[in-house]
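Q: I have 274 residues here and want to know how they pack in 3D. Can you give me a structure?
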Amino acid sequence: MLNRWLGRPGRWLAVAALGGMAVAWQALDNLPSAHAQGAGGAAASTAFPEADAKIAAKIKAGLRKGRGSFEFNGVKATPIPGLYRVEIANGPILFASEDGAHFVAGGDMYGVVENSFVNLQELEYRPQRAQLLAAVNVKDQIVFSPKGKTKAYINVFTDIDCGFCQKLHLEVPALNAKGIEVRYLAYPRAGLRGPSYDKIATAWCADDPQTTLTRLKNRESVKMAVCDNNPVAEHMELGAKIGVNGTPALVLADGSLIPGYQSADELVRLLGVE
């Protein structure tokens, strides 16, 4: 798909560079940037500082020779001398030479630290994800809050018919007991039509969304009642923007994206909650 996108003038593609992060996360359990968090706040990114203006202009000029219709922006330096990170508006990330005559597309850049590899692309995207999630009205989420003080929270993109989503939901009481708030967003994997959509929309439209969501995840019989102006489509669009490509997908307050099921014990450790 990336080759087709780059090879055809005027062909645009939704941002897809985040997709590779899902696989990368599992190998990066000991990232140097702390995941421990309070109830809010996002970490700043220093992985790719802004490039010198003259170099940035030279790179853009070189790339425009190949695709003059593309908008190249966000030129940043990388830890590799002579290699620069370039964003294409509404398109993928490139790693280009200083003259803009050559580039690499479709991969992630990693740094090597003690006992770990660090996905620098992931570090760069975290603040953007955190900002997008912070803009979501909590009233449009189905929230399971601790009875006492909230020490941390996780955003969870979920699907009613997803087995691992159902398994994760069983961990919610244990998470709440540790002071972790769970904020659900709707992400029916089958799309905005069909039984899965009807189920998750019914939960969001219910007078008691928490109980309805729980009953549906427990595979209990619930009468479908889809209301107008529910936030499911908006949640799906947001998920696509931040790189969600499956469920459950967890996003921490710092913007870290964690794909797949995690136990309560694993999340407590990851969040640094005592």
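Q: Anything worth noting?
A: The chain has two domains: 2-131, 136-271. The first helix runs from residue 2 to 7.
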